[in-house]
Amino acid sequence: MTERQRLARIPWRQLTTRPVYENRWIRVREDQVELPDGRTTVYGVVQCAGCVGVLPFLDLDTVVLVGQYRYVAGDFYWEMPTGAMKPGEREETAVQRELAEEAGYEADRLVKLCACHTSKSVVDETANIYLAEGLHPVQRRADPTEFIEVRAFPFDEVVRMVERDEIKDSMTIIAVLHAARRRRP
Question: What is the CATH number of domain 51-183?
Answer without folding.
Answer: 3.90.79.10
